[in-house]
Every structure is written in structure tokens, then in C-alpha cells.
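Exercise 7.
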Amino acid sequence: MGILRFDDLVHGEFVSRPNRFLAVVRVEGEERKAHVHDPGRLPELLIPGAPVLLLPKKGPKTDFHLIAVYREGYGWVFLHSGYHSLIAQKLIESRFLPEFRDAVAYGKEFKIDNHRIDFVISYHTGDVLMEVKGCTFFKDRLALFPDAPTKRGAGHVKILSEYGDSILLFLSMNDNVDYFAPNADTDKIFHKAVLEALAKGVHVIPATFSFDGSTLRHVDRIPFVSDPYDDELFSLANIASEAAEEYTERFGPEANAVLAGVSRIGGVPYIHVVFYGVFCQSCGLYDYFDDYGLVLGDYGVPSGPEDVKQFGNTYVVRFKVKEVQ
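Solution. The predicted structure, written as C-alpha cells, is:
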């Protein structure tokens, strides 16, 4: 699904980054200055000689805005965080993700305490806060956030935890990844905040995007894993994803399941699953969730639904894993 299109980007190559907001680039053999609208360190992206795409936009000290950089093995990585709010807005309006299918309204820049949360989304079931973070750090087939410590980001996550019904949306600006995880190596405080948020029912959505040099497209969603070094969780995620596909084959389109992610809370593994469809309410809503648990049991993973969040007619259910055989 197309999100943004740029028709007048200029090719260049990265030279240096004198400060967080400024890049020196080479265009047609001449060194020029470009604004960097991304607070991350970007060490694996901004490498001397790396191809870049630039938007002509005259500023007091710059001639361009840095839009994307080419990374070997990944392709173009979209960098400009100034578009994150618009990208998230288009995701909401497209209703492509089941969590947004029943949104009736939304507002931007919701003020709470001394912070501003990116969105408040209204459903017939109530209002939901949503914070948006852009992810440009990739390792192997894993998207990681952040690439630099972010006290502000941890503060946002804490607010979501305290509010209750809320969404943490990560925009992975490349689709050559299979999972998302909070970057425990770079920011242990942020990682801890995400773990606490998951325990309190904050819903994490990692969405992937591709950029072909002119058009940014939303590709899909990927599951999250609460710890990038927990091999047992990755194994559990693979099983839970297969179980969700089998569940949808059996019960769709009346009931569909998609894996949101897996976490370890207090040492206990949990599976987070999104359910959507034309549920037969009179049949007993929880029966649909129990049926997924039965499918999981067939894969040797005994579990039971422990927590349910509702976004309109879409449900996010957290399953407690009793043991993995």
C-alpha cells in the first residue's frame, strides 16, 4: 500500500555528519549540506560513500533534507522522522491493520502531563492512546529500537502503561526483517519500560515499510519479541505464528488470528494474539480465544487466555504459556 511518493529526489553520497542535524553530502562531485531529521546515531547507515536520496529544500544552512540511505543487504532505508506522524495517520485511515478497522475518529498531539502523545484514537469501546516510533536499526533479520538511549521515549512508554488501553506503533523503515525487539544493549531503561508496558497490556504493533527510491509502501506487520537474545521466545514465536495461520484456516473469515508477538513477564512466556472477524457474540466470545489455545496445544504449547484488550471489534489477547513440551 502506497503511503508517500517523492518525484524530485536527488542522488548523492554521504560524506560526514558534523552534528546530529547536519550531513555533508556529495552531489555531482560537489559537497553540499543536508538537514538530518532523525535523532538516532545511525552508525550502520551513515557511512562515508553510502548512496543517499535528498529532497531539495532550502534552509538557512542547508540545501536538502536527507530522505533515505542505501544499506547493503537491506536496500533503501527511509530516514526522515518528520513524516512519521503522517505515515501513522495514513495507516489509521487505510484500516489495513485490524486494530484500526473500527476507529471512528482520531486526534493528534494529545497532551498528558508534560508530554505529548502522538495520537488518541476513538472507538465505540473507548479512547486509546498511541505513540509512534521510527525504527532504522537492523541486525540480521531483526528490527531494533532505539539505536541511541532515549529518555523521552521511555517516558512516553511509561505514560502508555499508566493510561491503560494504548498502542505502541513501531515503523520499521525496511521490510527485510522478520521480528522486532526493543534494543536492550543500547537502552536498558527503554527495554525495561517496554517489558512493564507489555505486562500492563500495552499493545505493540511493529509495521514494516519498503522504499524504492520514490514511493514508501506499507508492506506488512512483524511479530515483536520482548528480548532480542531469548532464543526460546523466538522458537515460541515461530510456533505461535503457525498456530495463528492454522486457526485462521479453520475458523476464518468468521474469526481470524494473527500473532502480535511474544514476551517474557516475570520469567513466564506469553503469546499476544490479535483476533478479528465477524464473531458470533451469542456463541460466547471467549470460545474463539479458547479455540486458539487448543490449536496451540496441538503444537505442544499448553496455554490459556489471561488478558483481553478491545479496539472496536478487534481483540488483543495475551495467552499465558504453562509449559512448552
